[in-house]
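Quick look at the format.
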Amino acid sequence: MIEYNNIINEFIFTQTGDINLFNFIIFALLFSIAIDVIFGELPGKIHPVVIIGSIISFFKKMFIGIRNRWSGFLLVLCTTVCVSLILFKIFYISNFNIVLLFIIFTILLSSSFSIKMLLDTAISVENDLKESLDKARQSVSYLVSRSTEELTEGFIVSATIESLTENITDSYIAPIFYYFLFAIVILFYPFDYQLYFLLLIAMIYRMFNTLDAMVGYKNDELIHIGFLPAKMDDVLNYIPSRIAGLYVVISAYLLKLDGKNSFYIMRRDARKCPSPNSGYTMASAAGALNIQLVKKDTYILGDENKDIEIEDIEKAVRLSKWTIILFTITVILLLISVKVIL
């Protein structure tokens, strides 16, 4: 244990005994990715997103009776305050030891994204589809809001690829994008509790994403309280979704899929979705695979250049994986570039 402490100390301390901020930022990112890829999600009882969900549920019950958009504002405000205070308490307790702080920081950062679950879920549906159509219908019902009881094989494949590629943005690209942006800020303009705010920015993104998933619907119950969370989620995903779409296109070229068509379909069809953001990764993936992704009575993305097949799920998984890898490499190289400038 002492040996590991020495190794970590060498990474995150300068010769003068100060924290090496750049090393802390970049190694925390790399270790958090490794934790997620190897181990997946934290246990539900201690998972920050589950805790955030419980906080949201508590305040939702408190404010849902207010039948105007102030209910959504109060929900966002109270949830943000609670999440910030809990995170600050954890940060304050672990701050007495830099090794403990690094470990806690890394584990919490890993909970702000979900690579392993994103990819494994799609693979699971593919495996179920090879065994039984009914089993696959049940599996895909956990991924999409539409009824899956009568979906054909083609629609199950489409729904799986839609869910996988849509979630590239909020499951990885967006939280890392905001982590990266704030890392740049604190590298140029360091201030007190900078690491706390760096972690908080990723967790606040995850909070808004969870708020949108829980209350961001236009039904009678949630139309008022869900308005602000849904709009905030749209705003926060606006730039990351478009970046993610471009990285899908680049990954398509790298994997020798149809990169040119990927870019064309993204530009043509991305705005066909009700969400202002979800279409960018879905449309670019449809173009790369030369398939149509169809949600009945909602959207059709891509051209039916070939019949959609079970194997397209595996191709979409590889496309998503390389989108994540290339974006991560870009973030690391940009951080190194900033270090050189500094």
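Next, a different chain entirely:
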Amino acid sequence: MLTGVRTVFIGGDARQIEVIRKCMEMDASVAIAGFDKLQDSFQGVAREPLTAELLSGADVLVLPVVGCDDEGRISALYAEGPLKLEEEHIKAMPKHAVVYTGMAKSYLRALCEKNNIKLVELLERDDVAIYNSIPTAEGALMMAIQNTDFTIHGSTSMVLGMGRTGFTMARSLQGLGAKIKMGVRKSEHFARAEEMGWKAFMIKDLSTQLSDINLLFNTIPTMIVNAQIISKMPRDAVIIDLASAPGGCDFRYAEKRGVKAMLAPGLPGIVAPKTAGIIMANTLVELISEEIKIQGEMHK
């Protein structure tokens, strides 16, 4: 249980609602900012403006999946106006407090480091990222079906990057009967891809693997699908970039050449916010409980 743990939520989307509910169920003391337009009454939850005073009493601060941008702006679907995280907010937090988010930009990292506040990025954890890869893959499949005039079954589908999302993406495509080409950067990933029955190749050889593909799913957050690569793809191929913004595709050149290319970050929150929220909520409660135990031991 989280009885007595003062938890503040600032901004977010439908995923955050599930996390708030879970913390309420665990008997945390919950305050929310940036939820003015949300109809849910959340009985027992305090609705507050974002102030230093609000955070001065927080044991836990929960930010959206992408905590804030590099100017401190917080994404808040249900807020009446803009929300911005300032240094005064983090500075006001007690030194034992912890900030939780999905992934942090350099602005948030610097604020927490400067003020000696612990920062936890949930998407850095393998368990969260693997669970999150499931709605990501389902959303990518939905986009592929909506934007093509052929079946995934029998298609030649390329996946770039065999990380947590790439693996789930390729396995999902394989389950629908696609022929998989898997671009990897490590020899052990090459071996695993071969074992899975996929046609593996090293990313450095990408330009030689493009002539017959129908779909390309990129998970690598660097400019890998550049103009040179796109120029070698069939014009009727579709690119779905799953890497975090700004992605790894030259969208300007793709449009110029007539190749359909879409950036699709944050799919879990779009296609399955309830599931994605529950994933985050369960991990968050586990981590807060561990933190309480650690701090309890320190004060013995």
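The radius of gyration is 21 Å.

See the schema section for token definitions.
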